[in-house]
Amino acid sequence: MHTIEPDVERPDRDVVAAFEEIPSTIVSDVTGNVGRTMDADLSPASDGVDLAGTAVTVTAAPGDNLIIHKAITMASPGDVLVIDCDGYTGVGHVGELMCESCRANDLAGLVIDGGYRDSREIAEMDFPVYGRGVNPQGPLKQDPGSVNVTVSCGGVSVDPGDVVVGDDDGVAVVPGEDAQDVLELARAKLESEEETREEIQDGTYLFERNGYDELFEDLDVVGPEDSIQ
């Protein structure tokens, strides 16, 4: 069954915009480091990428991009297309012209669990794109798909309206209904890390400051004389 849902419940725009100042690592930390960070294989098409926006989700048949074209027309300024192509990199599902259309209509970025093409042109474009691989072969346009349903992208379950945060390190996802709470936690984490940074610059070891020395003492550490020769 294929679904086209035009309506997306988005978090407050100011909250989403505030995530532009939050690194993906911080989002990952404050959301528990589990289940909200996409696979490392979904990498940015260029360096120096910053991404924050609300998800418009897409499921596309591997090798086909007809539904992706439809989704671009449905997205609003500030949205991020999050596309599930089942990890298929046998074709480039999106290319320069599609990304140019996204940029012209003020989308915040595109994340595709699948292949894309025109990598050089996209890398030179001021538009954040993440993908699983590059392939010059073009896709078909004959299969339907779905827009604004729950998808799996980079190993993460993404709902329409979730907040997508990306940078050079990768992509993390915040459930839309938790956006304000996660933002507050992220800001507190950044403040805490700034204090820690100052202590480190004064010579403090993280090993001691964070109590890792106590954890280490609880381990069975053997010396060279105890190892098997």
How would you sum up this structure in a few lines?
With 229 residues, the protein is an alpha/beta fold. It is built from eight helices and ten strands.
User: Structural class, from helix and strand content?
Assistant: alpha/beta
Number of helical runs?
8
Radius of gyration: 21 Å
Report the order of strands and helices. Answer: HHEEHEHEHEEEEEEHHH
Tell me the major beta sheet. Answer: 8 strands, mixed
DSSP strand (E) fraction?
15-25%
Termini gap: 62 Å
Count of distinct strands = 10
The overall average pLDDT, rounded, is 94
Shape: elongated
Identify low-pLDDT runs: none
Give the fraction of residues assigned to helices. 25-40%
Question: Could you characterize the architecture of this molecule?
Answer:
The structure is a single chain. The chain is of the alpha/beta class and 229 residues long. It is 30% helix and 23% strand. The chain has 8 helices and 10 strands. α2 (24-30) crosses α6. The model has no long low-confidence stretch (mean pLDDT 94).
